[in-house]
Design a protein that fits this description.
GO terms for molecular function: ATP binding; ATP hydrolysis activity. By secondary structure, the protein is of the alpha/beta class. Strand 9 and strand 10 form a beta hairpin.
């Protein structure tokens, strides 16, 4: 296996304009991100909503142009020389109107080259428990998600970026999928970067875990399970679920403390002083509230 890292990111900072914001309003989504991931690794990104996980995966997939820092996959700049065999799978696919049309699953998979990957396609059909006679418009979100996974994984990918894409799967199918991905990294040296909020059944999956908060790595990708000399991780617990709970609780406590110290504005949770426009809206809705 090549000693060249699968992923190398250096001094990456990324900002974007918020929805509905003015052109000169910017939000810093990633701050001075640096990481290196070896080939054959399975890295789990852990962090709360808005921590920067999806933005990072989008940039790795070449879907967001950057202006500060460098992003290389297998030694190639993802914006200047997009690497082959890189697959990104996110949740937005299943909501696309184009994949909800009345098309038979077998025809759908063949339309994206399934006939070229018959052996891997058939293996995934068994793992994901897919009926080739399903019609895309008539199946559940979870079943449509299985088709997406089959479509994305049936070729021999080298880097797989997963963004919450297993959220619709039942536990049996998800377990089969994770075992398949693990075999791909072991047998072919493929690499997986996986962002999720579901930690049951994951303890034996990752080779590395990372903690993201406010757009930076609180803990850069670190080998999992932790070695005895990594006392900080060892003290946090024996499961990814317990560690994730601890990290997210610490993130929230830090945010609340900074709000009290005036280091950031309080925008979440209850509001102690109702703004005038909130009072006006409340008065309006009280006047036309027909729920009683």
């Amino acid at each position: 296996m090549s000693s060249q890292p699968a992923v190398e990111i250096s001094k990456l900072t990324f900002s974007h304009s918020p929805p509905g914001g003015r052109l000169n309003d910017t939000v810093v989504a990633l701050r001075d991100v640096n990481l290196s991931l070896p080939r054959g690794s399975r890295t789990l990104l852990i962090g709360g909503n808005g921590a920067g996980k999806s933005t990072l995966l989008y940039i790795l997939a070449g879907k967001r142009m950057i202006h500060q820092g460098s992003v290389n996959v297998f030694g190639k700049d993802v914006f200047k020389d997009f690497p082959p065999n890189l697959i990104y799978l996110g949740t937005e696919w299943a909501m696309n109107a184009g994949v909800r049309r009345d098309i038979v699953v077998s025809d759908f998979l063949n339309s994206v080259g399934g006939y070229r990957h018959k052996q891997r396609r058939d293996h995934l059909l068994d793992i994901l428990d897919i009926d080739l006679d399903w019609h895309m418009h008539a199946i559940s979100d979870g079943e449509r998600r299985r088709v997406q996974l089959c479509m994305g994984l049936m070729g021999e990918w080298d880097l797989l970026l997963l963004d919450e894409v297993t959220v619709d799967l039942d536990v049996l199918v998800r377990d089969g999928l994770l075992n398949f991905l693990k075999e791909e990294t072991i047998n072919r040296g493929a690499t997986v970067v996986y962002a999720t909020h579901i930690f049951d059944g994951l303890n034996d999956f990752p080779t590395h875990i990372a903690h993201m908060c406010d757009g930076f790595f609180v803990l850069s990708p670190t080998p999992w399970p932790p070695s005895a000399d990594n006392t900080e991780l060892v003290k946090m617990g024996t499961t990814l679920h317990s560690i994730a709970l601890r990290w997210l609780a610490d993130d929230r406590a830090l945010r609340i403390r900074e709000e009290k110290e005036g280091k950031r504005s309080k925008t979440r949770g209850r509001r102690s002083n109702t703004a005038p426009d909130d009072v006006d809206r409340e008065s309006f809705y009280k006047k036309y509230d027909y729920s009683h």
